[in-house]
Amino acid sequence: MNVAIAADVKADQSATPSKNSQAQNGMDVLLDLVSDDLKAVNALIMKHMQSDVVLIPQLAGHLIAAGGKRLRPLLTLASSRLCGYKGDRHLGLAACIEFIHTATLLHDDVVDESDLRRGRDTANALFGNKPSVLVGDFLFSRAFQLMSRDSSLEVIRILSDASAVIAEGEVQQLMTSNDLETDRDAYLKVISGKTAVLFAASCQLGAVVADRPQNEADALEAYGQYLGIAFQLVDDILDYSAKQAALGKTVGDDFREGKMTLPIILAYEKATAGNNAEELAFWKRVIEELDQSDRDLDHAIALMHKHNALEDSMSLAREYVQKAIDALAIFPDSPEKNALVKAVEFSISREF
Amino acid sequence: MNVAIAADVKADQSATPSKNSQAQNGMDVLLDLVSDDLKAVNALIMKHMQSDVVLIPQLAGHLIAAGGKRLRPLLTLASSRLCGYKGDRHLGLAACIEFIHTATLLHDDVVDESDLRRGRDTANALFGNKPSVLVGDFLFSRAFQLMSRDSSLEVIRILSDASAVIAEGEVQQLMTSNDLETDRDAYLKVISGKTAVLFAASCQLGAVVADRPQNEADALEAYGQYLGIAFQLVDDILDYSAKQAALGKTVGDDFREGKMTLPIILAYEKATAGNNAEELAFWKRVIEELDQSDRDLDHAIALMHKHNALEDSMSLAREYVQKAIDALAIFPDSPEKNALVKAVEFSISREF
C-alpha cells in the first residue's frame, strides 16, 4: 500500500513544481542505477508467481503486475551494488522480498465485516477474503522455496525473522487501534515492526550476499530501519493531508479505523496537557467509540493543525531521515551511496 | 480441524465397542512409542509460540494449547525413530510442522461474510478475521525462523514446497466449490495438496534428519501421502455420517458450503449416468446455487446412500490405506513400523 501511494504521488509530480520534481529525481537516480537489475527482478517475479491454479497468478497479478515502485527490491539491488556484489543472487532475493511484501499487503487488506462496506478496490474486495489469504500464503511459501534453493541459512534467518516481526507489528497495531492511551513509543514500535523491519532486511541483504563485514551489514540494516520509519511516518501524515484530498486521493482511512497514528497521538497529548474537555470528548467518541459522522474528519484535521501535530510528526520523520543518511557514513562516496541518500530524501518530500 | 475431529472420535471410543477400541489402540501404540519425544515437542511448541505481543500466544493457544492429537508431529517422531535417528533435531522439526499446520487451520477458518452468521467457535469467530490471519502468519514465520537456526536447506526446501502446495490445494478447493463438474481426479488433487502433502513431508523428514538413502525418504513420503489422502477421505465421509449426527457432532458443513467432496461427486455421477432429472436439479440447486432449506441435507445423505456414495468413498479410502502400508514394505519389522501401520488403520476405523 505504501508503494502504491508512493507511485501515485510520483505520477502526479509531473504536473507539480520544483519540490516534487526534486523528489522524482530522488527516486530516478536509484531507478536509473539499477534499471537492468530491476528488469531481471520483474521477470523473476512474473515467472515465480505462476501456478497451475489459475486464480493464484490472477489474484497475485492484481497487486504485483499492476506495478508499484518495487521500493524494497530496489533497496536490495542498490545495497548489493554498494557492497560491490557482482553475482546475481541479489535478483532472486529482491523477488523474494517483493513476494513477502505482497503477501503482507494481501493479508493486510483482509478486513472484518464492517470494512467490506466501503467497497474498496482491494484484492480482497474483488476476490473475497479467503483467496486473498491463501494467495498471500502461496507467495510467502514461494519466497521461502526460492530462498531454500538459491540462498543461505543466514538469508532465511534474516527474512524469517523479519516476517515474524512484521506479523507482531501488525497484531500490535490491531491491539492499539481505538486505544487513546497508545503513546508515541508504542506507535514507533508498531511501525518499526510492520514497515521498517522489511526495509532493514532489504538493505542488510546487500552486505550479506556480498559477504561484507558485519559493520556494513549493520549500517545498511540501520539505514533501512530509519528509512522505513520515516516512510511510514510520512504515509501516516499523508492520510490527513489536505493536499492528498485536493488531488482526489483517499484521506482519513486511518481515522475511520480508529488507528492510533502519530498525528492523533500528538493531538490527543495536547488535549490532555491542556485538559481540554471538549477535545478529549471528541477523540474519545471518534477513536475509542468509533462513533463518527461526516464532518469529524475535518474537525480532527483542524485539531491537528491547531496543535502542530502534522508538523511535529514531519519533524520526527526528518530526524529519521537524517539518521538514515548518517548510517551510511561508513561507506565511501559512490553513485550507489548517492542514490540511497536521494531515495531517503524522496521518502519525506512527498508533500502534505 | 482434522486432528480435532480425530480427537473427538477417539474421546467417544471409550464408550463404544470393539472396532473403535481397536482404533484407539492403533493411535495408542504410536503415542506410547514416542510419548517422551511428544512431551518435548509440546514444550517446544509452548515455548516458541510466545511473543511480547500478548494476543499472539493467546490466540495461538486457543488452537495449539487446547490440544489436538498432534498427528503430524507424531508421524515425524515415529518416522525419525524408524530410521534409527538418535539426535534431537526431529523435535524442533515436529514443532515447526505443528506451527505450519496451525497456521493453515487459522487461515482456513477465515471466512467470508456469509459464513460469519453461523457463529462457530473458531479463533476467527472469537477474535475476528484479521488477528487470525496475522497470528497464522506469525506461526508460519516462526516455523521458518526455527528451521533457519536448527536445520538444513533440504528441510526448508521440503517444508516450503509443502506449504506452497497446501496453499495451491486450498485455492483449488475454493475454485471447485459449487462446481458440479468437479470430478474425482480434481478432488483427489485438492486433498493431495491441502492435506496429504504435509503428512508426506512430516514422514519424509524422518529419513532426512537420519540421513537415510533417498529410497527410504521416498517410501516415507509415499506412506504419508497415501495416509493423508485416506485421512481426508474419511473426514469428508464423516461430514455426512449419521453416526456423527447421533453423537451430537456437526454434520453437513461441507454441504452448506457447497464443497465438492467425493460423496457428492459420486452421487452426482450416478444421477448423471441415470439421467435422473429430479436428482440433477436437486444437486444444481443445493450445490451450484447454494439454495438450501432445512431438509436438504437429509435428502442429500439419502441420495448418497441410494447410490452407495459413502460406501464407495470408504472403499477408496481403504485402497489408500493399503497403499500406505505397502509403501512401508522396504523397512524391516520393528515397533516403529508396527505403530505406523496401526496409525494408518486408525485413520479409517473412525466409523460412519
TrEMBL record, chains A, B:
Pfam families: polyprenyl_synt. Transmembrane segments: none annotated. Its cofactor is Mg(2+). Keywords: Magnesium, Metal-binding, Transferase. Belongs to the FPP/GGPP synthase family. The lineage of its organism: Bacteria, Pseudomonadati, Pseudomonadota, Alphaproteobacteria, Rhodospirillales. It comes from the Bacteria. InterPro entries: Isoprenoid_synthase_dom_sf (IPR008949), Polyprenyl_synt (IPR000092), Polyprenyl_synt_CS (IPR033749). It comes from Kiloniella laminariae. This is Polyprenyl synthetase family protein.
